[in-house]
Amino acid sequence: MRRWLIRFAVILGIVLVALALRRTVLAPKPLEVKVARVTKGRVESAATNSRAGTIKARRRAQISPEVGGRAIAIPHREGESVKAGDVLLRLDDSVLQARIALSRRELQASEAQRQQTCTGTERSQREVARLRKLTAEGIVSTDALDAAQSSAQAGEAACRAAISGIEQARASVELAARQLGLTVIRAPFDGVLADLSVELGEYTTPSPPGMPIPPVIDLIDPASIYVSAPMDEVDSARIQPGQPARLSVDPYPGRTFPGSVQRIAPYVLDREEQNRTVEIEVGFEPVPSLRLLPGTSADVEVILEARENVLRVPTPALLEGNKVFVVQDGKLAERRLEIGLKNWDWTEVRSGLAAGDAVVTSLDSPDLKPGTAVRISSEKTPP
Questions:
Q1: How far is CA 352 from CA 323, 331, 337, in A?
Q2: Which residues fall within 8 angstroms of residue 363, CB to CB, at 6 or more apart?
């Protein structure tokens, strides 16, 4: 009996030593995980553009002269700000000046001719009146009176023709003056000279009908810029004018600009059968210190709904079926959540977690399973 007790004690000691080694020296190392603490904050539901949007300007004038000519004055250069009415380009107008001078001389000649013709007509009318009295007295024959009346009528017609010639000459002067005005291009609104494709001494040619040519001047009003962005057709019913939006542009990474939806296209573009979109326009206030150039690509995020001070977890921490791993007493525990609003960054938690719970965010290890011993390598507390 004593021998059996000794053997039993030895076996029990071996088992205890094995268990101790397994729990200490031979125990597997805890799996390192990254966690984020559950906190309260803002969660938004948003719609983003399916393809890159584009910054555009509502007031953008691409101008070419209506007449051909040689550039003799370019008061402003690319990048300069101009006011409405400022001269942007002046063409050689010497030929048109000479044409105006000729038209004015023709007007003076027409006025002189009218004076001469109409003065003779008045004299003929007085002669007809005199002959009419003499004919009534039988002193002058009827044939003489008829000849005088015919001459007076011809004079009246010539006078009217001379008056018409004056009006025609005046119209010629006005036409020449208007053509002269076409040699000067002025800014139609306050803006920035974005492009200038002519230099002093170069000859510009107006665009022939049906054959467009590149404009000579490109004027942009930077205060009128907006973003045109294509949104997926599934979001077209949820997007409404006036909804807030966030804009981001490649030239300023990491920064966003507030805006709002101003217009939604009344139709869906179906150029691509698998990617139908609806175009929206988002306006925003440009920052004076930044240069947001028309043509720059931009991303738009329309805020459909937002909730403040709600429990939230990082969206990348969610598993299939709205589950998360929580670190509890050094081991993993699985929790099923009831969620609310959701976006790429945050998901609202309605039930299943409490503030302060440590949710695993590093889900790339295949060893993650409930009950696994873990060690927190880094912890992130959301702002």
A1: 9, 17, 5
A2: 316, 317, 319, 325
Distance CA 373, CA 363 (A): 15
- The region of weakest confidence among 81-85, 110-114, 296-300 is 110-114
Q: What is the DSSP string of 102-120?
A: HHHHHHHHHHHHHHHHHHH
Give the position of tokens 């907006």.
Answer: 226
Q: What is the pLDDT of residue 263?
A: 92
- The two most distant CA atoms of the chain are separated, in Å, by 187
Amino acid at 37: R
d(CA 98, CA 70): 16
16 vs 339: which has the higher pLDDT:
339
Alpha carbon separation from 335 to 98, 189, 348, 352 (Å, rounded): 91, 62, 15, 6
Exposed e or buried b per residue across 239-252, where buried means at least 16 C-beta atoms within 10 angstroms of its C-beta: beeebbbbbebeee
Type of residue numbered 327: V
Residue 62 forms beta bridges with which residues?
Answer: 218
With contact defined as beta carbons under 8 Å apart, do 188 and 84 qualify? yes
Q: Give one DSSP letter per residue of 319-343, joined into a string.
A: BTTTEEEEEETTEEEEEE-EEEEE-
pLDDT for the residue numbered 110? 79
- How far CA 63 is from CA of 36, 114, 121, 226, 349, in Å, comes to 57, 43, 53, 21, 57
Burial code (b: 16+ CB inside 10 Å, e: under 16) for 324-363 equals: bbbbeeeebeebebebbbbbeebbbbeebbeeebbbbbbe
Question: How far is residue 260's CA from residue 242's CA, in Å, rounded to a whole number?
Answer: 6
Side-chain-facing half-sphere of 273: CA atoms under 13 Å: 0
Strand 31-37, strand 374-380: pairing? parallel
